[in-house]
Amino acid sequence: MFNGYAQKDFSMEVLLLYKRMRSFDVMPNCFTLPVVLKACVMVKDLRQGEELQGFSIKTGFRSNCYLGNKLIEMYSCAGVIVSANKVFCEMVEKNVVIWTSMINGYLLNKDLVSARRYFDLSPERDIVLWNTMVAGYIEMGNMMEAKSLFDQMPCRDVMSWNTVLEGYANIGDLEACERVFDEMPERNVFSWNGLIKGYAQNGRVSEVLDSFKRMVDEGSVVPNDATLTLVLSACAKLGAFDFGKWVHKYGENLGYNKVDVNVKNALIDMYGKCGAIEIAMEVFKGIKRRDLISWNTMINGLAAHGHGTEALDLFHEMKNSGISPDKIEHCGCVVDLLSRAGFLTQAVEFINKMPVKADAVIWATLLGASKVYKKVDTGELALKELIKLEPRNPANFVMLSNIYGDAGRFDDAARLKVAMRDTGFKKEAGISWIETDDGLVKFYSSGEKHPRTEELQRILGELKSFNILLDEEEEL
Asked: Is residue 260 part of a domain?
């Protein structure tokens, strides 16, 4: 019974079963106690764990390594590292698993100095212990020491390489990340995901698609649901509709599209942001067990395409299905719908009455609508709030400056540009991506020339001349 509950992660049921067993005066054995202790760790029941420790001492199970390991883990997770160390020190026999557990306990409690001291004292170090220590340095942001320890490892497995690769990705050092990836003697799906995620979280979304194509072309590693979700998210940001459709088909062939809600949510987002809201709705309707992200993504997609009534209908359907909407996301959806419809006064009134404090996304939505409907007062209010939430985001200043410009208030626009410059940050140039037969082509709004600018200008000139001729023919 204990093992059955434990395998299903029914931790509370394990603890209740133990209490029932003790009520019948049935004695636990060396196999029962570790299972119950693990349940204490999972539900963070420190009091029950302490009682089990006392019982183990009385009944002679104190020297059991597995039990000692679970006690160290329990105290470490609860932040009582002194008690974890006491258990460690009282153990007569300590194998490499016990040393690893104690070191990991110090790392969980942000004590890197003690973790390294115990690592250096450990009489035996297997690859798990080495990986734990390297990962600890990375978690604390010390990539230099992590790489130094990685270089000292007598042997490395794919997890060792993946840990360092993700460490570089997390600090934005993609050059080092790529170097580690290329040097890896073998790669698994987590290696590829680490590289792809590194590109994604550092804004290099076109390389996400390039890496995925390379992964598929090499064919030695099969992408998993996390890979597809990352790639589909990149397609959504780039508006890469054709590539996204190909990933959809590829995922169907692998079977992820049938069972994984994360992949389907990413598909809804991708199709919605690429303008194919009907296909997004088809994917949404095909999800048997929708989560909150499924509903929110579809509702936001409908709202973004001007289907306000359908978005509200779907929102009510979500509530009737038993899904509780996230308060801030629900409020953001309502503000978005009101703003898109031009009801900015009502949107402001709704924000003031919201049960939660409006975040930067909500105020940015209102600011964007203020430009569309040329509402200077609302724009000024939105910027005032945004300055409190993200004072160094120059994009907000640019938006209100454009609103002033549209209203002919050029002095105010100039004043705002000076204020933006004083933040010390520059707004990144806008980028447009166009999907062609040769892949994705990038265009900058800053005037940076494309290699085929002259050819593009010539074609645009010809199209303009052709349109003038058509207009003249219609007049005749």
From this structure: yes
Please count the residues of the chain. 476
Q: Is residue 60 part of a domain?
A: no
- Are the C-beta atoms of residues 230 and 208 closer than 8 Å to each other? yes
0.90 exceeded by pTM: no
Whether 434 and 443 have beta carbons less than 8 Å apart is answered as yes
Distance of CA 475 to the CA centre of its chain: 56
DSSP labels, 316-381: HHHHHTTPPPPHHHHHHHHHHHHHHTT-HHHHHHHHHH-SS---HHHHHHHHHHHHHTT-HHHHHH
Report the number of distinct structural domains present in the chain. Answer: 1
In a domain, 314, yes or no: yes
Question: CA 70, CA 82: separation in Å to the nearest integer?
Answer: 15
Q: Which domain holds residue 271?
A: 225-325
* Whether the Cβ atoms of residue 420 and residue 401 lie closer than 8 Å to each other: yes
Digit-by-digit pLDDT tens for the chain (476 residues) are: 666 666 666 777 777 777 777 776 767 666 677 777 777 777 777 777 677 777 676 665 556 777 888 889 888 988 889 989 998 998 888 999 999 999 999 999 999 999 999 999 999 999 999 999 999 999 999 999 999 999 999 999 999 999 999 999 999 999 999 999 999 999 999 999 999 999 999 989 999 999 999 999 999 999 999 999 999 999 999 999 999 999 999 999 988 766 679 999 999 999 999 999 999 999 999 998 899 999 989 988 998 887 878 888 898 899 888 888 777 877 888 888 888 888 999 999 999 998 889 999 899 999 999 999 999 999 999 999 999 998 878 888 889 999 999 999 999 998 888 877 766 655 555 566 666 666 666 666 555 566 777 777 788 787 777 666 555 555 55
User: What is d(CA 315, CA 329) in angstroms, rounded to the nearest whole number?
Assistant: 11
Instruction: Give the residue from 57, 120, 122 showing the smallest Cα distance to 90.
Output: 57
C-alpha 152/C-alpha 154 separation (Å) is 6
**Pairs from 398-401 (Cβ < 8 Å, separation ≥ 24):** 398/427, 399/367, 399/368, 399/371, 400/367, 400/370
Q: Output the CA angle 317-319-323, nearest 5 degrees.
A: 115
Instruction: With respect to residue 354, please indicate whether it lies within any of the assigned structural domains.
Output: no
